[in-house]
């Protein structure tokens, strides 16, 4: 295999890389010109299919296949670009937008040509103020140069790109939640079918792609499907932007072929675990993907291999290192708090399940844990999400997977924590147990025993949130 040549990040260290003159000087928009003047839409779709490009936003669904789902007899097509990037510890899309926005715009042009979309909505996370400003300027530059608007490259193809800022909701990273928000409604994922390809934004056939996915497209058009498949592992081809953060000496985003091991990413590109410590666990792709233990660090970070140690998937490839002096209870508490806050509340299993996982983890953390809590947590996680068929979207699966992996890989640590961290102020009372079990009770309930503050200011009830 030839030496790896970064393409997605090749302009990042070039001065003024976000401007049109610099992008053009480095071959920018030539792939779009080639696609629009030398190829037809079906030819571009087939090229992306042949490359086996998989979506970089989390699910890893084949991009070309998604494009082919659009109805053949459609009269109008829209494209939505998912730049919400709300998965914790993920920042590769932000860097792409800030340092090389024209690469994304070129990918959007080609993608819209392939899918016959004449309008693209770039949905940007609200907190990405700098990225939003840079994108607006880049779109203005591209429009002034004729890369957007009417009759691009004399091909007869018209396209406009509109930037839409989100409202700071994790759930809007789900494609139908994004579409609902784009339409000015509450960001609730839609029941499917119909899928967006049939009825998406404004009831039009819509294709939704991630920023990094579209950034790969110009390079495939320029260099070909065989070049793209010369990198990576079977079923996981091409380059990938890996984020690495947490307890490492260097927190960074680096472009590498799919399939690098977690250990190499930490030791070489993250320059090792900080403070001379060792890794206890690693989050391989955003907290919704679960955990790798220290014994699983040689797992390749691609779409297939990462499932073997029990992770949900590669996700966004945002790797977070947890050192050996950090409690898994603290990690799970933070995860549970995040998902309970971000659940849209539409599905009862997710709304109630994420809340109870959080309340239980909070009680364990404060010192009121019981051994049976681990069994209860196992039961909750087993009944959450699309996988058991109880929710509309995958947020609940993401909430369940950290619990699932922690119970499987770190149960002794969880049991030891419960044994050694006991505080009577947060213990479950006999009355609460009786109520939970539905048993008759004659215990008196006094105002003092419910909702009163402890000396630390925390609510006495072990389930208070």
Summed up:
With 465 residues, the protein is of the alpha/beta class. It has helices spanning 20-25, 30-38, 41-51, 63-68, 92-99, 101-115, 129-145, 175-182, 211-223, 225-229, 262-269, 328-342, 348-366, 371-382, 395-409, 411-420, 430-437; strands spanning 78-83, 119-124, 149-152, 157-165, 206-210, 232-233, 236-237, 239-246, 252-257, 279-283, 292-293, 318-323.
Task: Describe it.
The chain has 3 domains: 20-230, NADH-ubiquinone oxidoreductase 51kDa subunit (Rossmann fold, 3-Layer(aba) Sandwich); 233-325, Ubiquitin-like (UB roll) (Roll); 329-449, de novo design (two linked rop proteins) (Up-down Bundle). The longest helix is centred in the C-terminal third of the chain and has 19 residues, at 348-366. The strands form 3 sheets. Strands 3-4-2-1-5 form a 5-stranded mixed sheet, sandwiched between helices. Strands 9-8-12-10-11 form a 5-stranded mixed sheet, covered by helices on one side. A two-stranded antiparallel ribbon has the order 6-7. The N and C termini lie far apart (54 Å). It contains 17 helices and 12 strands. It is globular. Residues 446-465 have low confidence and may be disordered. By secondary structure, it is an alpha/beta fold.
